[in-house]
Amino acid sequence: MDFNLSDEHRQVRDMVYNFAQKEIVPVAQQNDAEGKFDWNILRQMASLGILGICVPEQYGGSGLDYISMGIACEEIERAETAFRVILSVHLGLNSMTLVQWGSEEQKQKYLTPQARGEKLGAFGLTEPSVGSDAAHMKSTARKDGNDYILNGSKVWISAANIADHFLVFANLDPGSGAKGVTAFIVERGMDGLSTGSFHGKLGVHAGDTGEVVMHDLRVPAANRVGEEGEGFKIAMSALDWGRYTVGTGAVGLAQASLDASVKYAREREAFGNPIGKYELVQQMIAKMVLGTEAARLLCYRVGWMKNYGMRTTRETSLAKWYACDVAVHNADDAIEVHGAYGYSNEYPVERYLRNARGAVLYEGTREIHTIVQGEYALGYREDKPLRCPPPPAQGYERREVPSGFPAMGRY
Ligand code: CAA
Known about the structure:
Layout: H1 7-34, H2 39-47, H3 66-79, H4 81-101, H5 104-115, E1 121-124, E2 140-144, E3 147-158, E4 165-171, E5 181-187, E6 193-197, E7 209-220, E8 224-225, H6 231-267, E9 269-270, E10 273-274, H7 279-307, H8 313-338, H9 349-359, H10 366-378
Parallel strand pairs: 1-4
Antiparallel strand pairs: 2-3, 3-7, 4-5, 5-8, 6-7, 9-10
Helix pairs in contact: 1-3, 3-4, 3-6, 3-7, 4-5, 4-6, 6-7, 6-8, 6-9, 7-8, 8-9, 8-10
Acetoacetyl-coenzyme A binds next to strand 3, helix 6 and helix 10.
């Protein structure tokens, strides 16, 4: 076991940290207050190769490993959640799913421009009446010659109004649950596809959220991802990538709350001393350190396993669940450390709390992860081999998880 980051990982951290602190942090509060999605920052992320950081070079990506992917999410969200959300939907849920399940033609046509940052990808699973119970989606697909006709609507879709490509899920056999779910790539501009904005979110005001409506949307068979009826597995495997980006991002947000609290506690004086000298403030800061470091270790283990092409459904769920809870607790305590100033947007910590809260809900609620972990521990749930297993990172050989290998404790 080696807990050291490689030189390459350190370079990625320095590069993304310097970019995010220099370009994102100075405008983050303003963009949040104005509800502005900052295209200038997205373009810079594209030119630095961050939007395709772990996509193989042959498909236009930077070809770095999955720890680098996690570090990038961490450092981006340490500055502002809205741009980590883009990494989650564009890179994690969409591009990595095409790397894992896409045909060669789909990789050339859709993945490559996404990895280069020329096109933006998004992901549509959640529906107005179906969130956690994703298998019972209402969206339908009907075969029509060589095409499929899609109907239905997807809500809470990050980047709905700015993405070019969408990976969506619809059921070929309504009422059959997971068995009929099939995955499709649809494009903005196709007849029958429309998007709309959602307003009134608690947080991530600088990010776009909306709905994707499919009305008699004709999709060529070449845009079906995987086989008919394989869509639920594809959606769940997509979440193994997306949840990793959410978890690593939450580590960055937890770190941001810690950074802000340490700085403020050293500067602010009360009763004749910097407040950092008082044990109750130290206790809050110490708990932030504990949560952040533990969450980071859970997340890095996932990145390490992903590098070797191991399936990480269980480990990703645990890391995402814990890291998102830590991000909320840290932000809440950061407000406490800042006192009344923490309650105003003069300091960033109120934004951190609003931004942290959503991630506890999306990509698997706290309750879903709790149930999943309970089922694994009790032996009611186990991961089966996949037809398209997760790809090892470029330069890594696949490693199977040997029987009894304690990737996580077996009970
Ligand atoms: N990878 C591949 N296959 C998987 C898988 C994975 N990670 N997880 C499950 N599967 C397979 C199973 O092996 C099983 O296959 P078989 O039929 O061959 O046995 C099949 O999929 C069904 O799996 P389960 O029995 O585990 O299904 P379940 O009904 O028990 O799952 C659940 C329940 C865990 C709650 C799941 O529905 C779930 O995770 N729900 C949460 C959905 C979610 O996170 N939604 C948020 C999406 S975010 C979004 O859309 C908005 C945005 O912009 C970010």
